[in-house]
Design goal:
232 residues
Length: 232
């Protein structure tokens, strides 16, 4: 369903919106939107590792994991990396479709952006796992993920350029400027030659910080909460 949604977004919304919207900040909004769509799909796929946590709790898999001869740190790192890698493998063919539609590539810049997308998917997985073990309620987690998706994805440069977001509301522009989704989307567009970045190191460092925080924070929270019981 997500793959069908991805293709339909390109074939229908992307084409229609590009003919309706005249954005001076970008030369070709259709290519701009396709680049952001890849990041939105990657974010959506990486988030689902949190729902796996609840399924494991429901089926008693936690008890099995706790009986294994591995540390809590290794457990949460493995789950975060596994969730990020799984989502990246899933979205890989969709990214290939994006590259075909965009029709351009800067090889060196694209490798850097690809590395950033790896870290981004791992960071989103770590964030999802961290929130899941803190909340311990699948219903509340589902609602929170819906709210975060509405805020994080839409208050970013995934769909609209930063200048447009700032023009709509300066507060929205401030959030979009420090949003990891914006960092990932801008780096991907930079790697595909959609536009240039004055300093690509800044969004790359932002993604590294995002990945590092939720990986380290997730290790601490997971270790304290995994044996706390009370799963619903």
């Amino acid at each position: 369903m997500r793959a069908i949604w991805f293709v339909s977004q390109i074939a229908f919304f992307g084409v229609i919106a590009s003919r309706m919207i005249n954005v001076n900040a970008v030369k070709d909004y259709f290519r701009y939107y396709v680049g952001g769509l890849s990041i939105m799909t990657l974010y959506s796929a990486a988030i689902f590792i949190g729902f796996d946590i609840y399924e494991e709790a429901e089926h008693g898999v936690f008890e099995y994991l706790l009986s294994l001869p591995i540390s809590r740190r290794q457990l949460v790192l493995g789950r975060s990396i596994g969730g990020g890698l799984r989502s990246f493998i899933y979205v890989g063919p969709l990214i290939a479709i994006s590259l075909y539609v965009i029709g351009s590539l800067n090889p060196l810049a694209f490798l850097v952006s690809l590395f950033a997308l790896f870290l981004f998917s791992f960071g989103v997985s770590g964030m999802s796992i961290t929130l899941a073990v803190i909340i311990k309620s699948s219903d509340r987690f589902d609602i929170l993920m819906g709210v975060l998706d509405a805020l994080i994805v839409r208050l970013s440069t995934a769909m609209y350029p930063l200048a447009v977001v700032q023009a709509a509301n300066p507060a929205y522009g401030g959030i979009a400027s420090f949003n990891p989704v914006s960092f990932a989307a801008d780096l991907f567009r930079w790697g595909t030659g959609i536009f240039t970045l004055d300093n690509p190191l800044l969004p790359l460092l932002g993604i590294v910080a995002f990945f590092g925080f939720f990986t380290l924070f997730g290790v601490v929270i997971y270790g304290k909460r995994i044996e706390g019981g009370g799963w619903k």
